């Protein structure tokens, strides 16, 4: 009898190790792995802005476009050897960092935005990859994310965010709701490559495709443009470049990690989301790249789960929430003391309302 009962419960409580179901269909994975051809390289060349700032070699894209009939065959051969044969990218992936002031009178390094000036030959390779990559992102990136994906518009998030916050601040509910606006510190610069690689594999991309992406990311070396002089030389071990054609799409893959964690918490019921109407969907978050709004019930359990999710994502991805800037607003029916307590649990400031989201005003008189 002991063996029968023990065997019964052992079978129930033993994992069957169910296989992970990737988001990317096998047909799309095969499409990505198909051979690049001359037309892919030609399209990439003429997709680049002709007068974009050049890299170390000083040659803008206009040079390649103007003299394509002469240098085209050599450029195609060089690019295809990288894309197909695994030729090294290090010789064309030397990048100059130029600091662009973000404020009127910059005094600290933090007051500058680092822009990476890549060699155009690398941009052609990266553009050919990104043209193919972005065509499948609509399948693997959640609908909550509206940035950089063909067919999705920034206005979608603005309208939904406006409706949610308008309802949140106008509707008298028995329970309180909250809206948390996040700010990531140096979002591109802190991305851990290990996390990025595992996320791309998790979404169903092939090993060959992931290897090609990671070669683009990891082969970079940096110099600085200081008062017109190029100086310094070092290699990085994490981060994405602002100026690399691939970076926006790779960042979406990283942000999908946070989106998936919030969706899982919503499925478990630990993050409840917000409904604008009784029959409407529960919206837990809206993303536009690293601009984020998170909605949930305003109670201790939801706040603890949101903070736990953010901490787990930061630990895994390298992304760091700048808790000096994020703010939270709650339903007007909530007690002020309780609202301040919940804001302290998340580690953010309490405000009466979010004035703007994606640079658009959220409230009107």
TrEMBL record:
Residues 81-350 form the Reverse transcriptase domain. Transmembrane segments: none annotated. Signal peptide: none annotated. PANTHER family: NON-LTR RETROLELEMENT REVERSE TRANSCRIPTASE-LIKE PROTEIN-RELATED, RNA-DIRECTED DNA POLYMERASE. This is Reverse transcriptase domain-containing protein. The lineage of its organism: Eukaryota, Viridiplantae, Streptophyta, Embryophyta, Tracheophyta.
